[in-house]
Design brief:
two-stranded antiparallel ribbon, 41 residues, 1 helix, 24% helix
């Protein structure tokens, strides 16, 4: 079985993207993802 890797790329140029494997992982990371200024992305 292969695992899909996805990458979320924020529109905010001061934020880096992150990788995730499924929607639940995306939701968990997206809730805590911050830009360089500590703001929610």
């Amino acid at each position: 079985m292969t695992s899909n890797n996805y990458h979320a790329t924020p529109y905010d140029p001061t934020a880096t993207g992150f990788y995730f494997h499924n929607y639940e992982e995306y939701e968990a990371k997206a809730r805590t993802h911050r830009n360089d200024y500590g703001e929610v992305v």
